[in-house]
Amino acid sequence: MNYQEAIDFLNAPKYSATRPGLGPVTELLSVLGDPQEGLKVIHITGTNGKGSTAAYIESALTEAGYKTGLYTSPFIERFTERIMISGEEIPGEDLARLTQTVKDAVDYMVSIGHTAPTIFEMVTAVAFLYYKEQACDYIVLEVGMGGRLDATNVFGKVELSVITTIDFDHMQFLGNTIEEIAWEKAGIIKPGCPVVCFPQQPAAERVLREEAAKRNAPITFLDSSRIEVLRSDITGQVYRFAQSADEQPAEIEISKLGSYQVLNSALAYLALKTLQRESDMPALTDETIFSGLKKAVWKGRLEVVGRDPLVIIDGAHNPNGVEGLVDSLEKLFPGQKFIFVCGVLADKDFHSMFRMTEHLADEYLTVTPNCSRALSAPALADTLAEDGMKAVSYDSIPEALDTAITKAAARNESLPDDADLPRDLRPEAAKVVCFGSLYFIGDARLHLTSK
After folding, report:
1. Closest residue by Cα to residue 441 from 401, 408, 409, 406
2. What would the DSSP string read from start to end of 348-367?
3. How far apart are CA 405 and CA 356, in angstroms?
4. Where does 298-437 have alpha helices with state H?
5. End-to-end Cα separation, the chain, in angstroms
6. What pLDDT is attached to residue 422?
7. 190 with 211, same domain?
8. Which candidate, 221, 259, 14, places its Cα nearest to that of 116?
9. Quick one: 333 and 250 in the same domain?
10. Same-domain pairing of 284 and 376
């Protein structure tokens, strides 16, 4: 099996079902010799912010000198982004070799009449095999969906459980109330293992506390009221934070934009300080934590990918994510409007998403994400137009992006020079913001960064 054959196998339609449950993945791992056993895991779930929080934690552990695996989904540009060690993607030849091993195990399972694993279960098995053979010190492991029945939830013990914001998403699998969704997320809490959580809605917090108490797991919620932002602009952010009044406040700098990144990195800081206190990790010093948080990279989240005109991409793909995007844009560019390029999946609550952005929109350019669940560009444009918004659909993502940039550049040409502020950052300058499905954001980033 070569790299392309591995990618084709891991994208095969016959394995593409979404089927929460631990039976097939547990059997698959057993056939493979249980490569997950012995891995030291920081397990992360939540509705939004999982990937960013994971990236901050991984960066700090790597900065401390630990060999750290990072498992996330989906990818932005390349499949190999999903399985990384200390900032390096799994090599294509290793992905192919380990996928062949997993395929052989799957073929055996099917031959004896057992249920074939799903794509996500097989990719998870590949990751565990890779981390095991590479002797990683720690694994930062992002849940695919939910928690309780997710394929990553195969550990009896973890170093730390991390729960980011909980909101409505994947309701057909996780439930229709915030309590039901929180209960599913709480499934990653392990007996006696510490838990750190984002501030939650009262109903979600109550469920998390109850589930942690049942497992005798110490739980801490981030006190976001103790965050003081000192600087937030296009170059990054600095804030001061102490979880409690008897702690010396830490001054934390991050390169990522967005008010939600302050919260994600503060949650990561709380997680790292918990690891520092609860685990035998002498290399994880305050210095390496601060350095790792500053160096952390996470593509496609309020990321500046073009200047003059300013172009930003963000993977906000549900109402909670769009709420964070809107809040960030309002703080970075008060009173300004944007040319939005957007594409969404049909199973998302896109009506709520666009109601949130309407007051910031100069116009919408709609595209069709590269996914079978995508809402077509014409259908999205029609929906927006019916709600009184200016929207035009485009046949391709590159065409929409190039059109938006050309429009913004033409509007900005007549702006006079200002010695104090770059032309693209001036309040009257046209700015382009791309948001929506990560299937769209990945293709958009590839196109924009190749220009």
Report:
1. 401
2. S-HHHHHHHHGGGEEEEEE-
3. 23
4. 319-332, 350-357, 377-386, 397-412
5. 33
6. 87
7. yes
8. 14
9. no
10. no
In the structure encoding, which two tokens stand for residue 56, read together? 């901050």
> Residue 255: how many CB atoms within 10 A of its CB?
15
Residue 13 neighbours by CB distance under 10 Å? 8
Residues 317 and 177 in one domain: no
Alpha-carbon span 130 to 122, nearest angstrom: 12
Which two three-digit tokens encode residue 122?
Answer: 């097989």
Kindly report the CATH number assigned to the domain that includes residue 245. 3.40.1190.10
Are the C-beta atoms of 252 and 265 separated by less than 8 Å?
yes
Segment among 49-63, 119-133, 274-288, 411-425 with least mean pLDDT = 411-425
Residue whose C-alpha is closest to residue 180's, from 158, 157, 211, 153: 211
Which residues lie below 8 Å from residue 179, measured CB to CB, with a gap of 6+? 203, 204, 206, 207
Domain containing 83 equals 3-295
Give yes or no for residue 416 having a pLDDT over 90. no
Q: How many domains does the chain have?
A: 2
Q: Are 338 and 361 in contact (CB under 8 A)?
A: yes
Task: Check whether 111 has a pLDDT greater than 70.
Answer: yes
Task: Please give the full DSSP string across 113-157, using - where no structure is assigned.
Answer: TPPPPPHHHHHHHHHHHHHHHTT-SEEEEE-SSSSTT-TT---S-
Tell me how far apart the 2 most distant CA atoms of the chain are, in Å. Answer: 73
In the chain, % of residues over pLDDT 90? 83
Q: Are residues 263 and 345 in the same domain?
A: no
Closest CA relative to residue 73, chosen from 59, 88, 84, 62: 84
pLDDT over threshold 70, residue 171: no
Lowest mean pLDDT, pick from 63-67, 110-114, 174-178: 174-178
Question: 393, 378 in Cβ contact below 8 A?
Answer: yes
> Which of 174 and 329 is assigned the larger pLDDT?
329
The verdict on pTM exceeding 0.70 is: yes
- Looking at the fold, whether 71 and 186 belong to one and the same domain comes out as yes
How far apart CA 264 and CA 164 sit, in angstroms, is 8
Q: Which of 116-130, 190-204, 313-327 has the lowest mean pLDDT?
A: 313-327
Find the DSSP H helices in 187-318.
202-214, 259-278, 286-295
For the domain that residue 320 is a member of, what is the CATH number? 3.90.190.20
Residue after which a domain boundary falls, among 260, 295, 330: 295
**Over residues 120-124, mean pLDDT:** 96
Q: How far apart are CA 354 and CA 412, in angstroms?
A: 26
Do 226 and 241 form a contact (C-beta atoms < 8 A)? yes
d(CA 417, CA 262): 32
